[in-house]
Amino acid sequence: MDDLQAQFDATIAADQRIEPRDWMPEGYRRTLIRQIAQHAHSEIIGMQPEGNWILRAPTLRRKAILLAKVQDEAGHGLYLYSAAETLGADRAELTELLLAGKQKYSSIFNYPTLSYADVGVIGWLVDGAAICNQVPLCRCSYGPYARAMIRICKEESFHQRQGYELLMAMMQGTDEQRAMVQESVNRWWWPSLMMFGPPDSDSPNTQQSMAWKIKRHSNDELRQRFVDMTVPQAEALGVTLPDPDLRWNPERGHYDFGEIDWSEFKAVLAGAGPCNAQRLAHRRRAHENGAWVREAAAAYAEKHARKQE
Ligand code: ACO
């Protein structure tokens, strides 16, 4: 056991990857299953807010892009459930835990998409925040998670660009379209900052996850990186970020920003966000409606296996 632990520690210290066949501490396995499952659930639940606009996209081109994007999110969920399975988790059980409200998904997907501009703003801010958070996960110490993240990040970059391009088009349109973009930015800015998780002083998992090199940066570091990256993009777009305290701090070499309303974050995590009930109810319904597909696939797999015997 001591030898195994020493070998694990040496692998982490040498920045090499832990693979499914390797010994790992139970806490490392549990942390990864928790994070990867939460991440997978976020991708799947995250299809809903934008899915809301597929039938109402203004042109065929916008509809095709949105459809492809939402399908990508489904694919991300599937790679991530597969990564969790390499740790011994069972995908059906993870889904049950989500549906029972026992596993989390990202707070951001509990907000409504009230206007078409939200499709652009989700691409720009929400996928932008996701990229900031997830690019370092490509260097996560657990091999299957790190490898899944490479493809996911490439696709997220495309999502971010399509959102920004959509907003650019709207900002070059009418006053009404510009107002729609600004109104959407006002609603999504603060929830996007909350995506990075609680402040470091209140983040129970960060220290250990960083020691294990699952997380490479703390929540506050990544949040700051996102703000620094996004302010010039907002200027180029011609929108105002809804924070009177947002300003460049030459001494720190970063933007200062206002206090996040952590009571709102906690309420959303506790299930009291604007759309929590709706998101889970929709997911439960989809799961029930898909039961016959799972049964048919399992019956086919069994028949096929028998034939091969
Ligand atoms: N939404 C919901 N729950 C959150 C969020 C959030 N934005 N941020 C933190 N939490 C939860 C954590 O899961 C943890 O709960 P748990 O212990 O019951 O699992 C608790 O709040 C405390 O937070 P931390 O100690 O900071 O947790 P952790 O070290 O796991 O960090 C983080 C949270 C940054 C989200 C991390 O899990 C992570 O990087 N995950 C992978 C990325 C991801 O899940 N992205 C999903 C949204 S992006 C997208 O899908 C487009």
TrEMBL record:
BP-aspect Gene Ontology terms: phenylacetate catabolic process
GO molecular function, one term: phenylacetyl-CoA 1,2-epoxidase activity
Stored Pfam families: PaaA_PaaC
Gene Ontology annotations for the cellular component aspect, listed alphabetically: cytosol
Listed SUPFAM superfamilies: Ferritin-like (SSF47240)
Coiled-coil residue windows: none
Matching NCBIfam families: PA_CoA_Oxy1
Full protein name: Ring-1,2-phenylacetyl-CoA epoxidase subunit PaaA
Gene source species: Pseudonocardia thermophila
